[in-house]
Amino acid sequence: MPDQTATQPAASLDAVLRTPELGRRAPRLADHRAESQALLRLAGHLAESPRTILPAMAEITLELLGVGSSGISLLRSDGSGFWWPAIAGAWQPYTGGGLPRDASPCGVVLDTGRTQLFAHPEQYFQDIGPAEPRIEEVLLVPFRLHGKVVGTVWALSHDAARRFDGEDERLLTSVAAFASAAWQALGSLDALDAEQARLRDSEDRLAFALEASHIGAWDMDLATQTIVRSIEHDRLFGHGDAPEGWTFGDLLAHVVPADRERVAASFGAALAGEADWNVECRIRRADGDVRWIVIAARRRDQGGHMVGVVRDVTAQKLAEEAARTSQLQLHEELAAMTRLHELVSRLLVCPDLSTALQEVLDATIELNGADKGNVQLVNEDSGALEIVAHRGFGREFLDFFKEVRVDADCACGQAMRSGRSVVIADVMADEAFAPFRGIAVASGFRAVQATPLLGAGGRLLGIMSTHWAQRHLPSARDRRMTDLYARQVADFIERMRTDAALRKSAVSLAQADRRKDEFLATLAHELRNPLGPIRHAATLTKMPQATREQIKWAQDVIDRQVGHMARLLDDLLEVSRITRGTLELRKERLRLGENLIAASETVRPLIEARGHRLRVNVPQEEVFVDADPVRFAQIFTNLLSNAAKYTDAGGLIELDAIIEGADAVVRVRDNGIGISAELLPRIFEMFSQAASALNRSEGGLGIGLSLVRGLVLLHGGAIDAHSEGLGHGSEFIVTLPLVAAGGTGDAGGASAGNEGATESLRVLVVDDNRDHVDGWVNLLELDGHVVRGAYSGTQALRLATEFQPQLVLLDIGMPDLNGYEVARRMREATWGADMVLVAVSGWSQAEDKRQAEAAGFDGHLAKPASRDALEPMIGLAQDRKRALARVA
Question: Each residue of 51-107: pLDDT tens digit?
């Protein structure tokens, strides 16, 4: 990638750093099988072709994450920057390139030691700018060697629709963990190659030296066993000056005791003429240094002499030992990866979390050669660690560490605070662990390792600990593999919790869907019920033979049933306002007892009509609550009405209020149908009704108690329901906070209505529902007004220009011109400035009323609006008419 001249970055580092978003983005479903297969492929590649593991890692990462590019960055030996030994995907042509440390996102990962996510990094790291295709997002995960970050595994998104999430972080972290193991294995192979190269060079030089100058040559007189040696021979044995009278005994004295008998035996065999003398042994030089040598000799001159050479093979021996160690380490790494793969496979079929935790704990104990272990998970409510799986511990240990909080200085507490593994090689020598030494001795452990279980975004899920009976310091490999095991169990915990949440959500959705269907069926039933009487009454009024009494009955039926339908719709709107937080309370100081009695008197006709007895017991002393008088009455009339409706004839209903501390506790009891144990926990939910209630004609929509609960909570109170079951009655308990006595108590009476004789007005009624228009026209004409009707917005504007109404009743939702547009045009006319404009609409939320006011309406009435509800608007129009007459 070409370098660029340094200029001011287009954005700050914070502007392109998006790591916190990883924890907020919804992760896609984890594919643990694909992850396991990828790790197994990497392990096989490491065994068969370790030199090409990095390109294979980049290719498999590209495939596993489904991204545009992926690669490996390695820190240069001098720490000045990073280079890219392997890249797969669209950026593959940049393989072998690199960036300075401060000009690369990898530098941020190195500084923080944590996973990082960047969006459009070229806006800050300008050296990336020329690279194509451009980066939408880059996710980088560090990998370590002996605890130090030595590089990163990264993935690039070149598509704005591909955004990284917690699942990408999890998968890339697994690859990075494998990268650490692979890099260590490659280091061992490099060391072996170097030793073998040095050995070959040494052998070549030694062969040349032997050929050119007979280094280490000697000649022994077998009769006297005296030896004539070269200078180089004596130097090999550590002698600067040639010692006098060197014999076989002197040579044997330099051989280490463990090899001496074998060397003497081989020399004896050579003297017996059985073979040449060839032996490999260790000698201790005169300066004390131990070296490996090879002696090679044969007899000459009819056996009177033996000639030979001595060669130092210490380097070869060390190289062979290094090779054996490297091969053993590689074998152990492969065995560990195989065990990890087997563990992941077992986790995939684990039926529950408890089994999985025990499975991982047992594998971790075996991996570390530990004696005991336990797994603790974070309690979401208390924030403390709690033991959920263990091996080798008794009740005393389990009780002692029943709860561990973040400020504890035991190993798991320290790991909880730091988010990193903590090793205490000797608990008796660790000062911070001093308060826990007693339980350590009693439980039989001397060393402990605590490894955090970290979820997406680094969230602590728990701690996995292993314990040893003796002092112990885990190897770097064991700690690295333990981290991998911990990652697997953390992934499993999150998967199990996600699956549980999905199942719970599915159940909740199914329940909500069922309640919705029940509600729609009930709503259809409740709205259909009034239509029958209304239709009969309307038919009766058309019949010429109908008497005055029959017509009066029909009018009362229509008025009563329309009122019933209006109350049903009002209840629905009230619940909606409470749910959205838009219901406003007009609180004042109310006398508790007086207002409870008033509420009971409102319901008394219903109670007496069903032959019930009503007992009311309220405090004799004056106590006050801060409440909206209308909503206060609504709470208790609703509860008393329910008691009356769901109690068989001749029942007993009680309203009882007492003072408990700073609260008023009001109980509404009945001996009616009761509430089943199944329904009781959700009795206050929307659309909840007992089956027995649905069989009654007063079944309702099942929203009354939900409305009551919402109103009680808005008043700072609480409500609860009790029942011994079906047929045993029910009790509802409302708790409201009291306020200090003072002020005037209850609000004054209702304001008086308009007085004086009806004054005729010009009225225009506009609606695309002809029956609605014609009904208002007939009613208002009977009151003496001059009324016109229009069935569209366009017709209304034409008629209003000619008629110039003083009062307009205007629908909002019409097909040609909506009511807001009609209102604006009327207000713009010279005759429209002083008219009274009233919106009459089925849309009656607070936002609808605000829009009506902004469009120039003087008032807003919800359908079906009664004649009484219109009276204030008629009075306002009459006032304006009189005021205009005085001005004229």
Answer: 788 898 899 999 999 999 999 999 998 888 999 999 999 999 999 999 999 999 999
For residue 132, count CB atoms less than 10 angstroms from its CB and return exposed for 0-12, middle for 13-18, buried for 19 or more.
Answer: exposed
Q: Give the three-state DSSP class for 438.
A: helix
pLDDT at residue 670 greater than cutoff 80: yes
579 contact partners, CB below 8 Å, separation of at least 6 = 710
The first and second tokens of residue 345, run together, are: 């496979």
Strands (E), 313-384: 372-378
Tokens representing 685 are 């939910």
Higher-pLDDT residue of 101 and 481 is 101
Asked if the peptide bond before residue 530 counts as cis, ω within 30 degrees of 0, the response is no
Instruction: Tell me if residue 179 falls in helix, strand or coil.
Output: helix
- Each as own residue / partner, the long-range contacts of residues 578-586 (CB below 8 Å, 24 or more positions apart, any chain) are 578/707, 578/710, 578/711, 578/714, 579/710, 582/845, 582/846, 583/710, 583/714, 585/627, 585/628, 585/631, 585/714, 585/715, 586/628, 586/629, 586/630
Q: Take residue 73 and report the two structure tokens written for it.
A: 């960055």
CB 830 within 8 A of CB 872: no
CB atoms within 10 A of CB 671: 18
Query: Cα separation of 501 and 21, whole Å?
Result: 21
H, E, C per residue of 471-534: CCCCCHHHHHHHHHHHHHHHHHHHHHHHHHHHHHHHHHHHHHHHHHHHHHHHHHHHHHHHHHHH
DSSP bridge pairs for 591: 624
Strand 836-841 and strand 786-790: pairing? unpaired
* DSSP string for residues in 259-301: HHHHHHHHHHHHHTTSS-EEEEEEEE-TTS-EEEEEEEEEEEG
CA distance 337 to 343: 10
Strand partners, 764: 788, 808
Angstrom distance (rounded) from CA 411 to CA 414? 5
Tell me the mean pLDDT in the region 498-527: 71
**What whole-number distance in Å separates Cα of residue 265 and Cα of residue 371?**
47
- Of 569, 522, 571, which Cα lies nearest the Cα of 705? 571
Q: How far apart are CA 167 and CA 660, in angstroms?
A: 53
Q: What is the DSSP string of 807-837?
A: EEEE-S--SSS-HHHHHHHHHHSGGGSSSEE
Q: What is the pLDDT of residues 574-614, one digit of tens each?
A: 666 666 666 677 889 999 999 999 888 888 888 988 899 99
Beta strands at 116-119 and 762-766: parallel, antiparallel or unpaired: unpaired
The token pair that represents 214 in the structure block: 């007979």
CA distance 363 to 383: 27
**pTM score, two decimals?**
0.40
Q: Which is nearest to 392 in space by CA: 448, 466, 490?
A: 466
Length of the chain, please? 888
Distances (CA, A) of 473 to 339, 365, 373, 439, 470: 22, 14, 16, 20, 10
- Rounded CA-CA distance 136/184 in Å is 32
Cα Rg, the chain, nearest whole Å: 46
- C-beta of residue 455 within 8 angstroms of C-beta of residue 490: yes
- Amino acid letter, residue 608: E
CA atoms within 13 A on the CB side of 636: 32
608 C-beta neighbours (distance < 10 Å), count? 12
Give the pLDDT confidence of 6-60 residue by residue, as tens digits: 467 888 999 999 999 988 888 887 776 677 677 767 766 766 777 788 898 899 9
CB 273 within 8 A of CB 281: no
Whether cis (ω within 30° of 0) applies to the bond prior to 133 is yes
Contacts for 115 with CB less than 8 Å, ≥ 6 apart: 19, 22, 109, 139, 140, 141, 142, 169, 172, 173, 458
Q: What are phi and psi of 322, to 5 degrees?
A: -65, -40
